[in-house]
Design a protein that fits this description.
This protein is α+β, with helices and mostly antiparallel strands. It has helices spanning 24-37, 76-89, 110-127, 182-192, 208-214, 231-243, 258-267, 289-297, and strands at 49-51, 54-64, 70-71, 74-75, 93-105, 131-139, 147-157, 173-176, 221-225, 246-250, 281-284, 306-312, 320-323, 329-331. Strands 9-11-8-12-10-13-14 form a seven-stranded mixed beta sheet, sandwiched between helices. Strands 1-2-7-5-6 form a five-stranded mixed beta sheet. Strands 3-4 form a two-stranded antiparallel sheet. Helix 2 packs parallel to helix 3 (110-127).
Protein backbone atom coordinates (compact mmCIF):
# COMPACT_ATOMS: atom_id res chain seq x y z
CA UNK A 1 0.00 0.00 0.00
CA UNK A 2 1.40 3.39 -0.94
CA UNK A 3 1.74 5.70 2.03
CA UNK A 4 0.57 9.28 2.04
CA UNK A 5 3.27 11.90 2.33
CA UNK A 6 3.29 14.51 5.11
CA UNK A 7 1.14 17.53 4.36
CA UNK A 8 1.65 20.35 3.92
CA UNK A 9 4.81 19.75 1.90
CA UNK A 10 7.95 21.55 2.97
CA UNK A 11 10.88 22.74 0.93
CA UNK A 12 12.88 19.76 -0.39
CA UNK A 13 10.51 17.33 1.44
CA UNK A 14 12.89 16.63 4.30
CA UNK A 15 12.45 16.07 8.01
CA UNK A 16 12.57 19.31 9.98
CA UNK A 17 13.41 19.88 13.64
CA UNK A 18 9.78 20.87 14.07
CA UNK A 19 8.66 17.36 13.19
CA UNK A 20 9.97 16.30 16.60
CA UNK A 21 8.49 19.14 18.62
CA UNK A 22 5.21 17.53 19.63
CA UNK A 23 3.07 20.08 17.78
CA UNK A 24 1.21 20.16 14.48
CA UNK A 25 4.19 19.09 12.39
CA UNK A 26 4.67 16.04 14.60
CA UNK A 27 1.01 15.11 14.21
CA UNK A 28 1.30 15.43 10.41
CA UNK A 29 4.35 13.20 10.31
CA UNK A 30 2.75 10.54 12.50
CA UNK A 31 -0.57 10.52 10.69
CA UNK A 32 0.85 10.54 7.17
CA UNK A 33 3.92 8.33 7.47
CA UNK A 34 4.49 6.55 10.76
CA UNK A 35 1.11 5.26 11.91
CA UNK A 36 0.02 3.84 8.52
CA UNK A 37 3.31 1.96 8.27
CA UNK A 38 2.88 0.21 11.62
CA UNK A 39 -0.93 -0.09 11.63
CA UNK A 40 -0.91 2.36 14.49
CA UNK A 41 -3.87 3.35 16.69
CA UNK A 42 -6.75 5.25 15.13
CA UNK A 43 -7.89 6.78 18.42
CA UNK A 44 -6.18 9.34 20.65
CA UNK A 45 -2.39 9.17 20.83
CA UNK A 46 -1.86 8.79 24.56
CA UNK A 47 1.34 9.16 26.58
CA UNK A 48 1.36 5.37 27.04
CA UNK A 49 -0.48 2.43 25.47
CA UNK A 50 -2.42 -0.50 26.88
CA UNK A 51 -0.79 -3.85 26.14
CA UNK A 52 -3.04 -5.92 23.82
CA UNK A 53 -4.67 -8.71 25.79
CA UNK A 54 -3.51 -7.19 29.09
CA UNK A 55 -5.69 -4.10 29.68
CA UNK A 56 -4.23 -3.46 33.13
CA UNK A 57 -0.67 -3.23 31.80
CA UNK A 58 0.67 -0.07 30.17
CA UNK A 59 3.83 0.49 28.13
CA UNK A 60 5.63 3.65 27.05
CA UNK A 61 8.94 4.42 25.38
CA UNK A 62 10.81 7.67 24.86
CA UNK A 63 14.19 8.88 23.60
CA UNK A 64 16.12 11.79 25.10
CA UNK A 65 18.55 14.00 23.18
CA UNK A 66 18.71 17.03 25.49
CA UNK A 67 21.60 19.45 25.07
CA UNK A 68 23.47 20.16 27.30
CA UNK A 69 23.67 16.82 29.08
CA UNK A 70 23.81 18.47 32.52
CA UNK A 71 21.79 21.43 33.74
CA UNK A 72 20.53 22.84 37.07
CA UNK A 73 17.93 20.49 38.47
CA UNK A 74 18.85 17.45 36.41
CA UNK A 75 20.61 15.82 33.50
CA UNK A 76 19.83 13.54 30.58
CA UNK A 77 19.99 10.44 32.79
CA UNK A 78 17.46 11.45 35.43
CA UNK A 79 15.29 13.20 32.83
CA UNK A 80 14.97 9.96 30.84
CA UNK A 81 13.85 7.99 33.88
CA UNK A 82 11.41 10.65 35.04
CA UNK A 83 9.97 11.15 31.56
CA UNK A 84 9.00 7.53 31.06
CA UNK A 85 7.68 7.13 34.61
CA UNK A 86 5.49 10.18 34.02
CA UNK A 87 4.14 8.90 30.70
CA UNK A 88 3.01 5.73 32.44
CA UNK A 89 1.45 7.73 35.26
CA UNK A 90 -0.58 9.84 32.82
CA UNK A 91 -2.49 6.67 31.89
CA UNK A 92 -3.22 6.03 35.55
CA UNK A 93 -0.46 3.43 35.94
CA UNK A 94 2.04 2.74 38.70
CA UNK A 95 5.48 2.11 37.10
CA UNK A 96 6.74 -1.45 37.54
CA UNK A 97 9.98 -1.69 35.53
CA UNK A 98 12.19 0.23 33.12
CA UNK A 99 14.66 -0.47 30.35
CA UNK A 100 17.63 1.82 29.68
CA UNK A 101 19.38 2.00 26.30
CA UNK A 102 22.39 4.19 25.52
CA UNK A 103 23.73 5.39 22.16
CA UNK A 104 27.17 6.80 22.88
CA UNK A 105 29.43 8.85 20.64
CA UNK A 106 33.01 7.67 20.35
CA UNK A 107 35.19 10.03 22.36
CA UNK A 108 32.69 10.75 25.15
CA UNK A 109 34.70 11.11 28.38
CA UNK A 110 34.08 8.14 30.64
CA UNK A 111 33.47 10.40 33.61
CA UNK A 112 30.52 11.99 31.76
CA UNK A 113 29.13 8.55 30.92
CA UNK A 114 29.55 7.58 34.57
CA UNK A 115 27.64 10.67 35.71
CA UNK A 116 24.76 9.92 33.31
CA UNK A 117 24.32 6.26 34.27
CA UNK A 118 24.74 6.97 37.98
CA UNK A 119 22.07 9.65 37.72
CA UNK A 120 19.73 7.27 35.87
CA UNK A 121 20.22 4.61 38.50
CA UNK A 122 19.65 7.00 41.38
CA UNK A 123 16.50 8.43 39.78
CA UNK A 124 15.10 4.92 39.28
CA UNK A 125 15.95 3.83 42.84
CA UNK A 126 14.50 7.02 44.34
CA UNK A 127 11.28 6.42 42.40
CA UNK A 128 11.17 2.76 43.44
CA UNK A 129 11.23 1.49 39.85
CA UNK A 130 13.93 -1.06 38.89
CA UNK A 131 15.88 -0.94 35.63
CA UNK A 132 15.60 -4.56 34.47
CA UNK A 133 17.10 -4.53 30.97
CA UNK A 134 18.86 -2.30 28.47
CA UNK A 135 21.31 -1.93 25.63
CA UNK A 136 24.52 -0.05 24.82
CA UNK A 137 25.76 1.03 21.39
CA UNK A 138 28.79 3.13 20.47
CA UNK A 139 28.84 5.03 17.16
CA UNK A 140 31.50 7.07 15.38
CA UNK A 141 32.35 10.66 16.14
CA UNK A 142 29.64 12.97 14.86
CA UNK A 143 27.02 10.24 14.48
CA UNK A 144 25.27 11.44 17.65
CA UNK A 145 25.85 14.39 19.97
CA UNK A 146 27.75 12.78 22.89
CA UNK A 147 24.99 10.49 24.18
CA UNK A 148 21.32 9.74 23.50
CA UNK A 149 19.19 7.78 25.99
CA UNK A 150 16.10 5.64 25.40
CA UNK A 151 13.90 4.41 28.22
CA UNK A 152 10.91 2.07 28.05
CA UNK A 153 8.59 1.48 30.97
CA UNK A 154 5.87 -0.97 31.94
CA UNK A 155 3.21 -0.02 34.46
CA UNK A 156 0.22 -1.50 36.29
CA UNK A 157 -2.97 0.53 36.03
CA UNK A 158 -4.88 1.56 39.12
CA UNK A 159 -8.14 -0.40 39.12
CA UNK A 160 -10.46 2.62 39.31
CA UNK A 161 -8.37 5.18 37.44
CA UNK A 162 -8.80 5.24 33.64
CA UNK A 163 -7.74 8.69 32.37
CA UNK A 164 -7.64 9.40 28.66
CA UNK A 165 -7.14 12.45 26.45
CA UNK A 166 -10.58 11.65 24.99
CA UNK A 167 -12.54 11.71 28.27
CA UNK A 168 -12.67 15.41 29.24
CA UNK A 169 -16.25 16.58 29.77
CA UNK A 170 -18.10 19.93 29.94
CA UNK A 171 -17.67 21.70 33.30
CA UNK A 172 -14.53 19.73 34.16
CA UNK A 173 -12.04 21.64 36.27
CA UNK A 174 -8.59 22.09 34.70
CA UNK A 175 -5.94 21.68 37.40
CA UNK A 176 -2.19 22.26 37.10
CA UNK A 177 0.10 20.63 39.69
CA UNK A 178 2.77 23.33 39.66
CA UNK A 179 4.45 26.23 37.86
CA UNK A 180 5.27 26.04 34.16
CA UNK A 181 8.30 26.81 32.03
CA UNK A 182 11.08 25.88 34.46
CA UNK A 183 12.63 22.99 32.54
CA UNK A 184 12.71 24.57 29.09
CA UNK A 185 14.05 27.93 30.20
CA UNK A 186 16.70 26.31 32.42
CA UNK A 187 18.01 24.08 29.65
CA UNK A 188 17.99 26.88 27.07
CA UNK A 189 19.69 29.33 29.41
CA UNK A 190 22.40 26.79 30.29
CA UNK A 191 22.97 25.94 26.63
CA UNK A 192 23.20 29.53 25.47
CA UNK A 193 24.89 30.99 28.53
CA UNK A 194 22.06 33.44 29.20
CA UNK A 195 22.53 33.47 32.96
CA UNK A 196 18.93 32.71 33.98
CA UNK A 197 19.96 29.30 35.29
CA UNK A 198 21.40 31.02 38.35
CA UNK A 199 17.81 31.82 39.40
CA UNK A 200 15.90 28.77 38.15
CA UNK A 201 16.27 25.01 37.90
CA UNK A 202 14.53 22.29 35.94
CA UNK A 203 11.45 20.81 37.59
CA UNK A 204 12.35 17.31 36.33
CA UNK A 205 10.85 14.78 38.77
CA UNK A 206 8.59 11.72 38.84
CA UNK A 207 4.85 12.31 39.12
CA UNK A 208 3.51 8.84 39.87
CA UNK A 209 2.96 9.62 43.56
CA UNK A 210 0.63 12.46 42.55
CA UNK A 211 -1.36 10.01 40.42
CA UNK A 212 -1.38 7.50 43.29
CA UNK A 213 -2.95 10.21 45.44
CA UNK A 214 -5.60 10.92 42.78
CA UNK A 215 -6.46 7.23 42.34
CA UNK A 216 -9.22 7.16 45.02
CA UNK A 217 -11.14 9.70 42.92
CA UNK A 218 -11.38 7.02 40.25
CA UNK A 219 -13.41 7.86 37.17
CA UNK A 220 -13.91 11.44 38.33
CA UNK A 221 -10.38 12.08 37.05
CA UNK A 222 -11.06 12.20 33.33
CA UNK A 223 -7.75 13.22 31.71
CA UNK A 224 -4.10 13.52 32.74
CA UNK A 225 -1.19 14.92 30.77
CA UNK A 226 2.37 16.02 31.55
CA UNK A 227 3.02 19.09 29.42
CA UNK A 228 6.45 18.27 28.03
CA UNK A 229 7.14 19.01 24.32
CA UNK A 230 4.93 21.88 23.24
CA UNK A 231 4.26 22.84 26.85
CA UNK A 232 0.87 23.47 28.42
CA UNK A 233 -0.49 24.76 25.10
CA UNK A 234 0.11 21.43 23.35
CA UNK A 235 -1.25 19.36 26.26
CA UNK A 236 -4.48 21.35 26.47
CA UNK A 237 -4.96 21.34 22.70
CA UNK A 238 -4.49 17.57 22.53
CA UNK A 239 -7.14 16.99 25.19
CA UNK A 240 -9.54 19.53 23.66
CA UNK A 241 -9.10 17.91 20.23
CA UNK A 242 -9.41 14.31 21.34
CA UNK A 243 -12.34 14.99 23.69
CA UNK A 244 -14.01 17.42 21.27
CA UNK A 245 -14.54 20.04 23.96
CA UNK A 246 -13.74 23.71 24.40
CA UNK A 247 -11.25 24.60 27.13
CA UNK A 248 -10.86 28.02 28.73
CA UNK A 249 -8.06 28.96 31.12
CA UNK A 250 -7.36 32.12 33.10
CA UNK A 251 -4.06 33.87 32.46
CA UNK A 252 -4.05 35.18 36.03
CA UNK A 253 -4.30 31.62 37.39
CA UNK A 254 -1.45 30.05 35.40
CA UNK A 255 1.64 29.99 37.64
CA UNK A 256 4.64 31.38 35.72
CA UNK A 257 7.71 32.02 37.91
CA UNK A 258 9.09 35.54 37.60
CA UNK A 259 12.43 34.30 36.26
CA UNK A 260 10.66 32.22 33.61
CA UNK A 261 8.56 35.20 32.57
CA UNK A 262 11.70 37.35 32.31
CA UNK A 263 13.49 34.77 30.17
CA UNK A 264 10.49 34.35 27.90
CA UNK A 265 10.12 38.12 27.50
CA UNK A 266 13.77 38.43 26.51
CA UNK A 267 13.60 35.53 24.04
CA UNK A 268 10.16 36.26 22.62
CA UNK A 269 8.70 32.99 23.90
CA UNK A 270 5.24 32.19 25.22
CA UNK A 271 5.53 30.36 28.58
CA UNK A 272 2.55 28.24 27.54
CA UNK A 273 4.65 26.46 24.90
CA UNK A 274 7.80 25.97 26.98
CA UNK A 275 8.62 22.37 27.92
CA UNK A 276 8.04 21.22 31.49
CA UNK A 277 9.66 18.32 33.32
CA UNK A 278 7.70 17.86 36.51
CA UNK A 279 4.10 19.04 36.44
CA UNK A 280 0.84 17.56 35.25
CA UNK A 281 -2.49 18.89 34.07
CA UNK A 282 -5.63 17.10 35.23
CA UNK A 283 -9.24 17.36 34.06
CA UNK A 284 -11.53 16.43 36.94
CA UNK A 285 -15.30 16.33 37.35
CA UNK A 286 -16.53 19.52 39.08
CA UNK A 287 -17.67 17.61 42.16
CA UNK A 288 -14.15 16.24 42.64
CA UNK A 289 -12.17 19.41 41.85
CA UNK A 290 -11.63 20.59 45.43
CA UNK A 291 -10.60 17.12 46.61
CA UNK A 292 -8.24 16.71 43.66
CA UNK A 293 -6.58 20.01 44.53
CA UNK A 294 -6.31 19.03 48.19
CA UNK A 295 -4.66 15.67 47.52
CA UNK A 296 -2.20 17.18 45.04
CA UNK A 297 -1.26 19.91 47.51
CA UNK A 298 -0.70 17.30 50.23
CA UNK A 299 2.45 16.10 48.43
CA UNK A 300 5.68 18.10 47.96
CA UNK A 301 5.59 17.81 44.16
CA UNK A 302 2.03 19.16 44.08
CA UNK A 303 2.09 21.77 46.83
CA UNK A 304 1.64 24.60 44.30
CA UNK A 305 -1.29 22.98 42.50
CA UNK A 306 -3.90 25.43 41.21
CA UNK A 307 -7.12 25.42 39.26
CA UNK A 308 -6.46 27.28 36.03
CA UNK A 309 -9.73 26.93 34.11
CA UNK A 310 -12.51 24.65 33.01
CA UNK A 311 -14.10 22.89 30.11
CA UNK A 312 -16.59 25.32 28.65
CA UNK A 313 -20.13 24.35 27.76
CA UNK A 314 -19.94 26.75 24.81
CA UNK A 315 -17.33 27.57 22.24
CA UNK A 316 -15.97 25.60 19.29
CA UNK A 317 -15.08 22.00 20.08
CA UNK A 318 -11.35 21.38 20.07
CA UNK A 319 -10.41 25.00 20.84
CA UNK A 320 -8.40 26.29 23.79
CA UNK A 321 -8.95 29.91 24.85
CA UNK A 322 -7.11 32.09 27.34
CA UNK A 323 -8.87 34.84 29.26
CA UNK A 324 -6.23 37.54 29.53
CA UNK A 325 -5.49 39.81 32.47
CA UNK A 326 -7.60 42.56 30.88
CA UNK A 327 -10.57 40.26 30.31
CA UNK A 328 -10.14 39.62 26.61
CA UNK A 329 -9.98 36.14 25.10
CA UNK A 330 -7.32 34.81 22.76
CA UNK A 331 -7.05 31.43 21.14
CA UNK A 332 -4.18 29.23 22.36
CA UNK A 333 -3.01 27.44 19.25
CA UNK A 334 -1.31 24.08 19.03
CA UNK A 335 2.39 24.90 18.53
CA UNK A 336 3.43 24.42 14.92
CA UNK A 337 7.03 23.29 15.29
CA UNK A 338 10.19 23.57 17.31
CA UNK A 339 10.78 26.77 19.26
CA UNK A 340 13.24 25.17 21.68
CA UNK A 341 15.08 22.22 20.08
CA UNK A 342 16.89 19.56 22.12
CA UNK A 343 15.06 20.34 25.37
CA UNK A 344 14.23 16.75 26.27
Amino acid sequence: MALARPVPHHEDDVVLLGHGAGGRLTAELLEALVLPAVDGPHGPLEDAALLPGHPDLVISTDSFVVSPLFFPGGDIGSLAVHGTINDLAMRGARPVALSLALIIEEGLPLDELHRVVMSSGKAARDAGVPVVTGDTKVVGRGAVDRIFVNTTGVGQRHLALRPSAALARPADAVILSGPIGLHGTTVLSTREGLGFESDIASDSRPLHHLVDALAPLGEQVHSLRDPTRGGLAAALNEIARDSQVAVEIEESAVPVPRSVAAACDLLGLDPLVVTNGGCLVAFAAPAAADEALAVLRSLPEGREAVRIGEVSSSGPAGRVALRTLVGARRVVEMPLGEQLPRIC
